[in-house]
Amino acid sequence: MKLDINGVVRDIDAPPDMPLLWVIRDLAGLPGTKFGCGMAQCGACTVHLDGQPVRSCVLPVSAVGARKVTTIEGISSDGSHPVQRAWVEADVVQCGYCQSGQIMTAVALLEKRPDPTDADIDAGMSGIVCRCGTYNRVREAIHLASRLKRGNR
Amino acid sequence: MKRLVLPLCVAFSLPACGDNHPPAVSPVAPNAAGLAAFETVREVFQHPRCQNCHPAGDAPLQGDDSHVHAQNVLRGKDGHGNIGAECTTCHGPANPPSAFGAHVPPGNVKGWHMPTEDLKLVFVGLTPRALCEQIKDPARNGGKDMPALRTHLDDPLVVWGWAPGFGRAPVSVPRDRFLAAWETWAGAGAPCPGDATASR
Description:
Chain B: This is Putative Isoquinoline 1-oxidoreductase. The complex is a heterodimer. By secondary structure, chain A is an alpha+beta fold.
């Protein structure tokens, strides 16, 4: 099957029920997306399908179809996406394992809610578990990214 | 000989004719039959597979014990979840393969969602009478009359209740029996129970 991942159309030789996460990491060689729980309960594996966040660990690759896959490697080539810049500035990362899922979800959140409230952030990010408990810094970084995106800083 | 006995059974509703023969015509009045059928309908609507997405609050429920959905998942204004945590973030276009194991979010081709914030269509905790009246009320059921409600029973998200995927109990009433009960209830004028006894 053909799969558009980060703007590159690839020929993927995989059984139809292989989780998209396996394809991304093992077949496409993009290890930025992490395996956490394997049952859509932690959010570490979050990627975008046509801009919508999905848990790639529970999505059979055959369900992707013509939708475009975007991984953490695809939102910028050099870490310059406003959310990534905000993440660095707010020093969000502790162990870092959940950060790919956090950032992909934050990117999707800001696309639809450019100036989110704390409540918007809490509601939108609650499915991404951080074992280090960096939630306050995640919230701070999303507010900062919002300002960066809007040129308000 | 059998050819002769069978019509007699039907004609006179003889109970002694045996199990292989058509049942006797019910002496139950249409309204009572409709009420009995509604109890079957109610059992379906208040089964966890159906009521988990029709909670009284804004958090969906999950599991056969209808506990509150983990991860602070909420209905959102349009019933599709919150931005960043939409239902379809985890619930895909079909049930995952059984090989993925238990506790993996089920999916549906229609796109997972629940009723909107403005029209919650609560099933949980309602008395049979309150549930019955709500189902029939176009002001509370999304503007549906009885034929439209019947059509809605073929909605993919409704049908999913009988094929919920690995590790989940399907609706306890077989679908064909549910549909027959619905037709009986609707055909009897969709009567509602008169008492206010709590249903669960």
